[in-house]
Amino acid sequence: MNRTRVLIVDDEPQLLRALRINLQAREYDVVTAGDGTTALRAAADQHPDVVVLDLGLPDIDGLDVLRSLRAWTPVPVVVLSGRLGSTEKVAALDAGADDYVTKPFNVDKLLARLRAVSRRRPEPEATPAVTIGEYEVDVVARDVRRADGTGERLHLTRTEWRMLELLVRNPGRLVGHRDLLRHVWGPTYVEENHYLRQYMAQLRRKLETDPARPRHLLTEPAMGYRFQP
Question: What span, in angstroms and rounded, lies between the C-alpha atoms of 111 and 16?
Answer without folding.
Answer: 15
